Amino acid sequence: MTDTPTATPTITSRPMPMLTTEHWPAFTTHTERDVIVAALSLARLVDWCGTPCVHTADAVVPGSDGRPSDSELASVLLARVVSAEWRSDLRLHVAIDADLGGCHPYLEQARLIGRTSTAYAASVTLESEASGTVGYATSLPADISAGDLIVIPCIGVTLLHDIKVASTQWSGQLSR
User: Fold this and answer.
1) Where are the domains of the chain?
2) What count of other Cβ atoms lies within 10 Å of the Cβ of residue 155?
3) pTM, whole model, 2 decimals?
4) Which class is domain 21-160?
């Protein structure tokens, strides 16, 4: 008689390691489904504010192992995936609802939040359809799809009006 397992093991994703603490605001931690900045859940912030959304906090002093700066700030940009498709260049092209041209993102630090993924990390081309800005993020799961949330750390202060995509062009006239 052979021993047969009675339950199938469950595969869960592990939190993606923070590549560089200096690129994130001070007191940033990562969990399986969220990024938390100074006790603020970024997944919860999206529930309150929608996307795109920006959160600014103290930057980290370079080389200090996470000590907050007394004078510098850093931001995180939260964006929703609009579309994701594999193309002939063998990359997953992901369009988001924010204009990356209005900030200074660390695209290689982009993270999926709001759900866990067991998919492998794919080579992703992160795009902003509004500005045509393209960057490469290698730590996003291959099963990313429309509706998913991405958080991207940014250098300095990022303002919402700089990254928000206008849904319609203003003609200069108010309707009555």
Assistant:
1) 21-160
2) 15
3) 0.80
4) mainly beta
